[in-house]
């Protein structure tokens, strides 16, 4: 923008290309989500008798629905006041624990059936959601950083930068 901003219309073309690239990425993600969901539905009894026309219609509806959900989540994140990074960390923390527990239960406890595993995951998700979102809503501060000064460190090493390389063009 600094070099070519003096040309009329070029900043607008640059901005339009940025938006086009981001929307293209979002569109391919929405279509991928729709395809995965529809393939999961096609494996059921309901999806075995879908015609090509109905399959295309359902794919478009699912992609539109995932786009609407994405827009709604963007508005929710904008209204929370906190950063999106904090929300991502909270959601990742909420889901990581139950996922690890489910995996370890499947590997180490072969006697657990699917009903017990589902009940355990649901209870774990409810508990971690309560803790994660409750602490966010209540405004619980994060951990305080430890003192990290090296003022009284007896071992002080100063590294000098290497000399610049010689200019071979001279």
From TrEMBL:
<protein>
    <submittedName>
        <fullName>Uncharacterized protein</fullName>
    </submittedName>
</protein>
<dbReference type="InterPro" id="IPR001734">
    <property type="entry name" value="Na/solute_symporter"/>
</dbReference>
<keyword id="KW-1003">Cell membrane</keyword>
<keyword id="KW-0813">Transport</keyword>
<dbReference type="GO" id="GO:0005886">
    <property type="term" value="C:plasma membrane"/>
</dbReference>
<feature type="transmembrane region" description="Helical">
    <location>
        <begin position="58"/>
        <end position="78"/>
    </location>
</feature>
<feature type="transmembrane region" description="Helical">
    <location>
        <begin position="84"/>
        <end position="109"/>
    </location>
</feature>
<feature type="transmembrane region" description="Helical">
    <location>
        <begin position="12"/>
        <end position="38"/>
    </location>
</feature>
<keyword id="KW-0915">Sodium</keyword>
<dbReference type="GO" id="GO:0006814">
    <property type="term" value="P:sodium ion transport"/>
</dbReference>
<keyword id="KW-0739">Sodium transport</keyword>
<dbReference type="Pfam" id="PF00474">
    <property type="entry name" value="SSF"/>
</dbReference>
<keyword id="KW-1133">Transmembrane helix</keyword>
<feature type="transmembrane region" description="Helical">
    <location>
        <begin position="116"/>
        <end position="138"/>
    </location>
</feature>
<keyword id="KW-0812">Transmembrane</keyword>
<comment type="similarity">
    <text>Belongs to the sodium:solute symporter (SSF) (TC 2.A.21) family.</text>
</comment>
<keyword id="KW-0472">Membrane</keyword>
<dbReference type="InterPro" id="IPR051163">
    <property type="entry name" value="Sodium:Solute_Symporter_SSF"/>
</dbReference>
<keyword id="KW-0406">Ion transport</keyword>
<dbReference type="GO" id="GO:0015293">
    <property type="term" value="F:symporter activity"/>
</dbReference>
<dbReference type="InterPro" id="IPR038377">
    <property type="entry name" value="Na/Glc_symporter_sf"/>
</dbReference>
């Amino acid at each position: 923008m600094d070099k070519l901003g003096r040309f009329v219309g070029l900043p607008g073309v640059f901005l339009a290309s940025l938006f086009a690239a981001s929307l293209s990425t979002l569109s391919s993600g929405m279509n991928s989500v729709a395809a995965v969901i529809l393939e999961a539905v096609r494996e059921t009894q309901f999806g075995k008798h879908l015609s090509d026309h109905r399959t295309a219609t359902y794919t478009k509806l699912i992609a539109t629905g995932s786009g609407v959900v994405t827009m709604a989540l963007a508005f929710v994140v904008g209204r929370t006041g906190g950063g999106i990074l904090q929300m991502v960390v909270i959601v990742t923390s909420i889901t990581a624990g139950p996922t690890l527990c489910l995996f370890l239960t499947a590997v180490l406890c072969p006697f657990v059936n699917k009903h017990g595993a589902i009940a355990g995951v649901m209870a774990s998700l409810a508990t971690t959601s309560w803790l994660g979102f409750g602490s966010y809503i209540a405004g619980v501060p994060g951990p305080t950083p430890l003192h990290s000064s090296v003022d009284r460190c007896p071992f002080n090493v100063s590294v000098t930068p290497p000399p610049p390389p010689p200019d071979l063009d001279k």
